[in-house]
Amino acid sequence: MKSSYHAWIAAIRIARRDAWRAKGRSALVLAMIALPIVGVSAADLTTRSAQLSPEQTVSRSIGAADARLKDSELSGPVYQDVEGKNSMPVGGYDKYDPRSETDPKVLTSAIPPGAQSLKDSTAHTKIRTRYGLLETDLREIDAASPLVKGMIELQRGQLPQEAGEVIATTAFLKESGFFVGSEFRARGSDAWYRIVGAYELPSDLNKSEVLAPPGTLLAPLDKAFQAAGVPGVVATDTYLVKVGGDGFTWNMVKALNTKSVQVVSRAVLLDPPAESDVPYIAQQKELGYYNPDNGLPTTELAVLATVVGLAMLEICLLAGPAFAVGARRSRRQLGLVGANGGDRRHIRAIVLSGGLVIGAAAAVTGTALGVALTLGLRSTLEEYLGARFGGFTFRPLEILGIALLAVVTGLLAAIAPAVTASRQTVLASLTGRRGTRRANRVLPVIGLLALAAGAAIALYGTASRMGSTVVAGGSAIAELGIVALTPVLVGLFGRLGRWLPLSPRLALRDAVRNRGRTAPAVAAVLAAVAGTVAVATYQHSAEIQARHEYVADLPDGAGVVTIHELGRSKDMPAVREALAQELPLAVRADVDHISYGKPGCERFTGPEGCGRAEIMRPKEQRCPLYEAKDGMDSFSDAEKKTLRKDPRCTYNRHSAQFSVVVADEKLMAALAVADPGAASALKEGKGVSFDKRNVKDGKVTVRLIDNKDEVYEPGVDPKGEDKVFPVHQTPDTAEGYGLELVLPPTAAKSAGLTTLPFASYFTLDGTATSRQKQRVAARIDQIGVEAPVTIEAGYQAGADITMLALTIFAGLVTIGAAGIATGLAQADAEADLKTLAAVGAPPRVRRTLSGFQCGVVALMGVVLGSAAGILPAVGLRLVQRRETEHLMQMAGDANDKLYVPIAVPWETLGGLLIVVPLGAALLAALVTKSSGAMARREAG
């Protein structure tokens, strides 16, 4: 035992000395191992630091209060979860009556007698900023109250003291262009407010919010909006409550739940009740909705373990040849160890100690850099995550485990070189002879079996319920099989040498002859390229599918401007004028909607006297799935599947703010309706229908429905006043883009309908430039209304740097692995290069040979990786095809067509197959010396 200890100490000292001598190679391996350690340790520290303690979580939510009371917005008793985030009616929604009246004083009556309380009111509106209009949250609370401590953090300035003073979040100041001391006003109000301070919400740094003293912001804005005839400010009130003693207990929470009050309690969050004492969970279990959070699912853990394992394999494949280079350059030293009585164990110990030393150095360096990176970028990370850390949380055991991963990786990378070095005879090591070694016949068989098993598992995954996970696992096994087969595949590449010129033929034959150093580098390139090709193939196929499934909002090149805020129709003429002045319009079709009720009513909800206009489809032309008393539950699965293919049950793939509009024949030109009868019908005073299911005997019925007559039962129509219009039905090829019925102004007027302008559809004479779009947006912004201009530009692929990043990563790995293999080849072939120089070979031969050696390794890895990467992509796409087909069978309609293509990204493959090997070869040729020192060639 003692002798073994001293032998390892000596081996570590020798390895440390060798690592210091070969600083460049040591730094390269250290960087390869340490880089992922930096990322993992920084991610661990960031995740742990971002996790708040229960006390911190409660303080950021309810300050120093014992509880926050809020209306559940459900009538009758409710059950809530422990956190107070979710609630549901007692008995579930099946027995819930939404028409029951709620008590407006429910919160104030729920405050325990003698308790200290503070009202917290929130709303939202648009604020006029330096750049336009900004959707902003509004808040009224006494920020100086002790109960607010911990909820907000004042950064600069002072708290508001009187009416007209507010404080704003730093996010609002950044987005609005304001600063402490600036004044602003809300859109629709003439009152000015001065910002006297800046604050932040520790758990929501990106929230744009303005805070004012109670009664100074929300009520004045609501009054101003109501006077302008637009929807007022809808405030949501909650109460912070301080009761003292044991705080707000779980029994007190359940008591308030009976009054439809939802509670966030400090005492409950810090000491939660048993699961059996939470009625909300019991009811969720009874209804089959309960899904406890038990951390990462088994599937995700398996995927994570697979990713970590493949990452370690990649590092070992990259670092292994580097250790082999060191062992080869130190073969004489290792031979002397053997000549002085050392056996194979001591040789292996010296090479393994190299992995141990580098791994330990990488562990220390990686974790230290991870800690420093997290500390240095803490503010940046907090802003990226949108929340302040609870503190800097350092868990020694986790960091130690991450560091141990680096040591294990270094040892694993050194195993193969250690075994190879220990098998060299003393004589071969001292004389520099390479020796001969029979190829391993077991490894290729294992690789072939793994490849076949992995492919079979991936194929099974395409039909399995755990499809994606099984495909990923099978693909990983198949890739490991290809890695094991790499020496054999490299040998097959050697047969191409007979058709190559001298330099590439020498490089290829050298690579094949020395598969022990070529195979790991090729395998490393293979692994990196396979991942890139898999992602590229999947993304390329998905993009083609998305392009095929893209549903245009309008005809290509057409546009629309729509007021998104009801009650602002008086601003539409100014919007239309701005549109005409700033854009090169060819056709502009002005569109109105039918208004039923007083101005400012919302479409579906609002006070009494508001309503809407709805097309009443003839009962025999309605989809039975939605008309039966019990809805879809009235039909068997087979009946539902059949009915979904019924033309009556197809759904409109477009949507519009209003399905019934009033416009003239210009709208047909704007919508590119080629049916000449449509424009003629509008000229003649007839309507135009885009959905034949709405038409009966050439007529369409429009019902004016008051909100008080609204019903929610399937198959039961709401009461209202019917208006019947003769219509022209367009052919099936005509598209209304969400519009189902277009009425001419004369028909609407004759029916006594009130209409209000809300949109304009248009076509362009040419195209609109970015400057023109900005100008019209600025003009509309000056009007003070939200009316976005949309111009259909067809399918636009989203900007995604994933493929670029993966391609660069694959290129770097390829160049690195090929460079390491080239360095090892030069170490092996130094005697041959000296012989070439001695017999008069030109100096460029050395440079050319190095370039081709590097290029050959890169090309073999890229070719094998490209082939290996296709398997997981095809498997995942087949899984997606099966899932899509199943979804279409269960929920698709008659218009759905299965289209899940599998397409190879030839541009990406071309770049990998040509550019990357060529770049690796050129780089190797440039960094190689064209001549070496003349020396006598050693015997052998």
What features would you highlight for this structure?
single chain, 940 residues, alpha+beta, 10-stranded mixed sheet, 30 helices, disordered C terminus
Determine the mean pLDDT: 80
**Major sheet size, sense and barrel closure:** 10 strands, mixed
Which consecutive residue ranges, at least 5 long each, have pLDDT under 50? 933-940
> How many distinct beta strands?
22
Number of helices: 30
Q: What structural category arises from helix and sheet content?
A: alpha+beta
Radius of gyration: 37 Å
Q: What separation lies between the terminal Cα atoms?
A: 40 Å
Instruction: Tell me the overall shape.
Output: globular
Helix percent band: 40-55%
Proportion of strand residues: 5-15%
Explain this structure to me?
This protein is an alpha+beta fold. The protein is 50% helix and 14% strand. It contains 30 helices and 22 strands. 38% of the residues are buried.
Short description, anyone?
This protein has 940 residues and is α+β, with helices and mostly antiparallel strands. Helices cover 50% and strands 14% of the residues.
SSE topology:
Blueprint: H1 2-21, H2 23-50, H3 54-62, E1 67-71, E2 78-80, E3 87-89, H4 106-110, E4 116-128, E5 133-140, E6 153-157, E7 165-169, H5 170-176, E8 183-184, E9 193-200, E10 209-212, H6 218-227, E11 236-242, H7 250-257, E12 261-265, H8 266-270, H9 279-287, H10 298-329, H11 331-339, H12 344-376, H13 378-385, H14 396-422, H15 426-431, H16 442-461, H17 467-493, H18 502-513, H19 515-549, E13 559-562, H20 572-582, E14 585-595, E15 611-616, H21 624-627, H22 637-644, E16 660-662, H23 666-670, H24 676-683, E17 687-689, E18 699-706, E19 721-729, E20 741-743, H25 745-750, E21 754-764, H26 770-783, E22 789-791, H27 802-828, H28 830-838, H29 844-891, H30 906-927
Parallel strand pairs: 5-10, 7-9, 16-20, 17-19
Antiparallel strand pairs: 1-11, 1-12, 2-3, 4-5, 4-11, 6-9, 7-10, 8-9, 13-21, 13-22, 14-16, 14-21, 15-18, 17-20, 18-19
